[in-house]
Specification:
Pfam families: DinB_2. This protein is mainly alpha-helical. The protein contains seven helices and two strands. The longest helix is centred in the first third of the chain and has 25 residues.
Length: 185
């Protein structure tokens, strides 16, 4: 299985996890915070939505501009790409400071956050499919918080999936901490 297929499978699993484990929860539980400085389930998803609002259009533009004959399906990693991926890997237990405009702490969120997340996943899966005819090693995705730096298309696609996995695991940890009498619902 190639890298894009692996990333697509990861994103499909993430979408399924949200539908099966999080969508059925009541709004109060989705907004439950285990501690004042931690994120609720919806805040985890809103953080990912903020990234998707930036990266999905950037990826769409880059994939369209770099489709065609020079398709390169294996990803070679730049220093920036390796560093970015290592930072967001779910098994990296080191907390990262979130840039202010990407931090949803204490946001008023509704079920719309879930719907938007699922829409972004559908869009990302379509982008992964389109990327099969693209040079994945083209440096074309400006880093959100420092646009002079660019990730390769393949690195950015993998970053999205790993970053999402990290925060979905965080959301599932919050779910485990929900008040017992309500979480079983």
């Amino acid at each position: 299985m190639n890298t894009l297929d692996q990333i697509s499978r990861t994103v499909e699993n993430q979408k399924h996890t949200v539908i099966s484990a999080l969508v059925p929860l009541e709004l109060a539980l989705l907004n439950f915070k285990p501690a004042s400085d931690s994120w609720s389930i919806l805040e985890c998803l809103e953080h990912l939505n903020r990234y998707s609002r930036y990266y999905n259009p950037a990826l769409a533009k880059a994939i369209t501009a770099n489709s065609g004959n020079n398709s390169q399906q294996s990803i070679s990693y730049s220093w920036l790409g390796k560093k970015s991926l290592d930072m967001v890997r779910p098994d990296n237990s080191k907390k990262s400071k979130t840039v202010r405009h990407m931090n949803p702490n204490n946001s008023q969120l509704s079920r719309q956050t879930l719907e938007e997340f699922l829409d972004h996943q559908t869009e990302l899966l379509q982008l992964l499919n389109k990327a099969k005819n693209t040079n994945l090693n083209k440096k074309a995705i400006p880093v959100e918080f420092f646009k002079l730096l660019k990730l390769r298309i393949g690195e950015a696609l993998e970053f999205m999936a790993l970053h999402q996995e990290r925060h979905l695991q965080q959301a599932l940890q919050v779910k485990k901490q929900l008040p017992v009498n309500q979480a079983a619902a």
